[in-house]
């Protein structure tokens, strides 16, 4: 899908506005604090039910407002809406005017991925962001995964409760057996997805970081030692888990390591190269999602000028030209966009509307240029 129209009300510092977007490429220009990142945040919010900038939902509402709303209409006239009443703690979800109760109902209709200046620091800093990234792709690509993950999470909670309460060993043994079975199933599905992602990643590295294509090694760690049975690991670590009060091994503890040779990639690459690598990985996942035909992903890239020089931006522009999805990019200065604009106008002739739209944001007001 692509967002044809974005409507925001009482969201951050954005004026109540209806914005018509280009189905392929959109540039959002504005000074720091103008509201350009808030536009991306609004789209991210309707795709994830949360912000990428804050965990405090009350920060998303305009000053002195208790209720805010974000809605989008896609290129097929599908209407998605999400509103929050902060004071009452009520969430309203609508799809084509019908009320829904689960955020996953929204997410099944819109796949939003984002790259910010902070993304690569979080991504390479610890497993939490890598897990979130992989499972986002799996939600859209592996259609049974959301059901598998809900069932696994339910069993994980039961097992953790047994560990904390010191319940009867027979009951813990039962939940441990189910936990092991589901961990193996989830780990297998994840492994097949990661293998597909690695294959697609090579395609995008060839465009963005060709010198690294044959040097990058990706390791999938399933959440317990590969050569051992999970049940054996749990038996050996019973006292350790008991002291922690939760499950230390299993499918929830998986990780994906990105290596250059034998070293973790972030210690070997410059900040600009790290950002290009994460972009290549995001584009690879976007391609896998788009092949499923449920939804086409929407890619949000905040502050394109950060960390990337002119040559890197030109390589990125060429890579974006190979994507089959909607891309929305923010920048502080228009000259940062020169490599993109020159390439896309060259490909589309004199009529830029064939290829992109440009917007300017000032004090929360969005104007198409």
Automatic annotation (TrEMBL):
Annotated keywords: ATP-binding, Cytoplasm, DNA damage, DNA repair, DNA replication, DNA-binding, Nucleotide-binding, SOS response
Stored Gene3D superfamilies: P-loop containing nucleotide triphosphate hydrolases, RecF/RecN/SMC, N-terminal domain
Binding site for ATP: 30-37
Subcellular location: Cytoplasm
PROSITE patterns, sorted: RECF_1
Domain named RecF/RecN/SMC N-terminal: residues: 3-338
Pfam families named in the record: SMC_N
Matches recorded under SUPFAM superfamilies: P-loop containing nucleoside triphosphate hydrolases
Function: The RecF protein is involved in DNA metabolism; it is required for DNA replication and normal SOS inducibility. RecF binds preferentially to single-stranded, linear DNA. It also seems to bind ATP.
Record-stated family: Belongs to the RecF family.
Name used for this protein in its record: DNA replication and repair protein RecF
């Amino acid at each position: 899908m692509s967002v044809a129209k974005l409507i925001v009300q009482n969201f951050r510092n954005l004026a109540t506005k209806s914005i018509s977007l280009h189905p392929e490429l959109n540039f959002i220009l504005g000074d720091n604090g103008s509201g350009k990142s808030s536009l991306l945040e609004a789209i991210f919010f309707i795709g994830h039910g949360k912000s990428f900038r804050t965990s405090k939902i009350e920060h998303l509402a305009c000053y002195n407002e208790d209720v805010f709303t974000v809605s989008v209409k896609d290129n097929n006239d599908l209407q998605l809406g999400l509103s929050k009443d902060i004071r009452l703690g009520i969430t309203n979800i609508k799809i084509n005017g019908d009320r829904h109760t689960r955020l996953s109902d929204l997410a099944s209709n819109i796949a939003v991925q984002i790259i910010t200046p902070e993304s690569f620091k979080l991504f390479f800093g610890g497993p939490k962001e890598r897990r979130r990234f992989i499972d986002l792709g799996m939600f859209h690509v592996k259609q049974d995964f959301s059901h598998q993950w809900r069932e696994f999470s339910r069993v994980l909670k039961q097992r953790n409760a047994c560990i904390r309460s010191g319940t009867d060993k027979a009951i813990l043994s039962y939940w441990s057996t189910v936990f092991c079975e589901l961990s193996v199933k989830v780990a297998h599905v994840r492994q097949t997805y990661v293998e597909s992602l690695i294959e697609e990643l090579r395609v995008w590295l060839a465009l963005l970081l060709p010198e690294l294509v044959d040097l990058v090694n990706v390791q999938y760690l399933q959440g317990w030692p590969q050569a051992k049975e999970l049940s054996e690991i749990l038996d050996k670590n019973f006292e350790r888990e008991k002291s922690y009060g939760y499950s230390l091994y299993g499918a929830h503890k998986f990780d994906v390591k990105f290596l250059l040779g034998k070293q973790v990639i972030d210690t070997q690459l410059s900040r600009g190269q790290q950002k290009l690598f994460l972009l290549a990985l995001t584009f690879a996942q976007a391609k896998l999602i788009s092949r499923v035909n449920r939804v086409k992903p929407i890619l949000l890239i905040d502050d394109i000028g950060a960390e990337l020089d002119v040559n890197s931006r030109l390589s990125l522009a060429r890579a974006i030209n190979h994507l089959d999805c909607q891309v929305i990019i923010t920048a502080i200065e228009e000259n940062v966009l020169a490599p993109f604009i020159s390439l896309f106008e060259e490909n589309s002739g004199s009529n830029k509307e064939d290829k992109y739209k440009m917007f300017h944001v000032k004090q929360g007001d969005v104007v198409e240029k």
